[in-house]
DNA sequence: AACTGCCCCAACCGCACAGTG
DNA sequence: GCACTGTGCGGTTGGGGCAGT
């Protein structure tokens, strides 16, 4: 079918993100949001990454409000009951779990909860020990949370947080990679200055 | 101590939807 | 109304780490 790929895969870096790339992306998004669109962002930020990849990295890993680490029993129960109701609508389920992403929930489901769910359905028992979430009191907190989160949307550009860029002293990498990262940092700073100039002009 | 298999999670892929000219 | 572009989403994969043998 006809859709052209979102970026030229031969010209973008792929695979795990380095700390420097994270720092550049975080600092850029905190200042400018997605700067109009995600596709153009890597160019503006001086990252050799696909826009989709940048978006995913920000949404799933870099956002400040994210919680990483173990899911609580309450979260388990909520996921199980929501899955029972709506199936694999991970984004909807994640929106009910403040600080969790759809990728988080999906991974957690695939690695842990799926087995539990299948086991319980095989036994013919209701999946979730928790009462199904109603739109009222019991999950009103979660609902309110997700609601307020929905309203907050992408993080507002916060005051310049240059510190983020500078705490890259724990670079543990080898020659070429370090050189690449330093070049990226410099380029990013340069572009930042240019962007600030443009913004001021407007 | 070495090997193997499993688990977990970050990242990628491709499709569908929404917005815009 | 149509075509094009950007975004969102769900499914899948690859690799590192850990536990068991």
UniProtKB/TrEMBL annotation:
KW DNA-binding (keyword) present: yes
Source organism superkingdom: Eukaryota
Record PROSITE patterns: HTH_MYB, MYB_LIKE
Location of the protein in the cell: Nucleus
SMART domains assigned: SANT
Region Disordered: start-end pairs: 119-174
GO molecular function: DNA binding
Keyword flag Nucleus: yes
GO cellular component, one term: nucleus
Main location: nucleus
InterPro entries, per the entry: Homeodomain-like_sf (IPR009057), Myb_dom (IPR017930), SANT/Myb (IPR001005)
Keywords: DNA-binding, Nucleus, Repeat, Transcription, Transcription regulation
Residues covered by the Myb-like domain: 9-62, 63-113
Chain ranges of the HTH myb-type domain: 9-62, 63-117
Listed PANTHER family: OS01G0722300 PROTEIN (PTHR48000:SF66), OS09G0431300 PROTEIN (PTHR48000)
Protein name: Transcription factor MYB36
Naturally occurring in which organism (per UniProt): Dichanthelium oligosanthes
